[in-house]
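Hey,
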Amino acid sequence: MKIVSVNISSFGKLTNWKHDFSNGINLLKEDNGFGKTTLCAFIRAMLYGIGYNYTKVGDERINDVKRYMPWGSNGLFGGSMVVEHNGEKYRIERFFGSKATQEQLSVIRLSTGKSVPITTSVGEYFWGLTADSFDRSAYIPQESVEMSSTENFDQKLANLVESGQVDYDKVVENIRNYKKRFKYERGLGGSLYELDRQEMALTQQQSAIVANRKRDEQIALRLSQIDKEEQQLLQRQQMLQQQVEQAQIAIAQSAPSAEQLQTKQRIAELEQRVYSVPKQLVEDSQQCQQLLGEIDRQKTIKKKPNVLLIVGVLLALLGVGLAFVNLVVGIVVSVIGLVVTVVSLSKGKAKNKPTVAEELTKQYLQIAQKYVNTYQKDIATIQQELWNIASEYSKDVEVLSALKATVRQTQPALAVDTGKLASLQQTAQQVAVQLRELSAEKGRLTAERGHLNLDLAPISDQLMNFEQQRQKDLFAFQTAQTVMDLLAQAKENLSTSYIPKLCNRCTQLVSRVLAVPTEVQVDASFTVKLLQNGSAKNLAFFSRGIRELTLLCFRIALSELLFDGQIPFLLVDDAFVNFDEDNFVRATQLLKDIATNGQVIYFTCHNRKGRL
């Protein structure tokens, strides 16, 4: 495949940019910032598309859309590229959007103008290389300092060694598809998975049936216990009913007579009257009686005369008489008499306080008014009313005590029979509740037992059938896996035949560019080493220029193997900047030789061209 032309509508910093390419060397010299790397990315995008998944660069999440969508634009971006393959020209038109679903791709065969159906990537369709394989062979950027094997390399090189007699990829794909019938390589699926899933479900059902059988035994045992408990409770219930009937008959026979009922009514009335009177009535009545006796006694005690008053009056009169004889003496005696009189009068006023009888009367009235109305009544009337109340109260207490004694003597058995009846009735109710609970439990257990699946035979038969089918499918799967492993081993054995060719060709190219015999060693995983002083050294031990030059030669040798000695296309992005002058001249001569039967597109910003 060769690139004929590119037409970029918009891609990164490139807009409305066109360029035609020819066979051989195509040298594009542009200043830094022109977009050489962007142009390389455009060519790759036309073949393999762009990445929509985000990666984190520093603190920013970025993908190819952010890298190559022109600034200020949210629409489609891309363009077209014309390529030549097996003598036919094709136009690849590809435009990208912010999402993968917006991407537009068409491949037109220019000789017919018809669209070419593409089921793989465009690069795989024309080149037979995946994007990773393209990056490691046909595309040589400036930072081309690593190399590793890919499955696509191994398959393509193995097919070359087999000389096309066997299409290894198709055989492996057919076996892989056959294996998927039994078990998926990734995820869950296939007949083995389905059999395992169904077998697991049946095993769970089997465990459930075993548990059901155990539960059925437990229910049967409990139902048997319930029957025994019901028989015992029914017997007890019958006995209690008999005892209740006997107690009711006994109570009916000992029912109180009309006279007893009247007595109870009389007791109730008396209790109401007795309880309505304060309990201290008798004591208060006796205290009032004592107060009356004391009052009467106080009234019989005579009041003593005021002697001092009499003496004072007599002295005053005597003083008046003496005044006629001796005025001074008469006045003195009269004054003394007046003083004595005044003093006696003042003492008389001090003694003018309630008498003992009055105080006692006041106490009497305070007690009596708790029981009778004392307003405007004399003590005799009050005393008579208080005596009547106390007498009536004492009589009621005596009668009430006598009636209660009579009731206690006539009704002791009735009280006992009534309490016994209440206890029997309560016990009978408890027994009835227990019988209802047992009946409900019996109903629940019987219903549960009816819904239990106890049949293990169908499950066992299905498990046996599944196991037989599983063994059959497992054998087929393992056989296919064995065939696939043998093919892989055969492929590996065949693929090792290109390693010596790759080492020899890489050694020739490195020795040519360095102008010094240099042996290169390459293993099956494409690890490249240089032999120095009889010891193989990893490229990490050499300068960057030597590393890049060696890997350039390795890529060229690999591409020659991939395309049977004829390299159709190389894309080189300023990959020789670290070469010294002599190595640069020899490396560019190597590219020039390769371009004789192919196409090399070389991008640079330097004036140094070497042999280009």
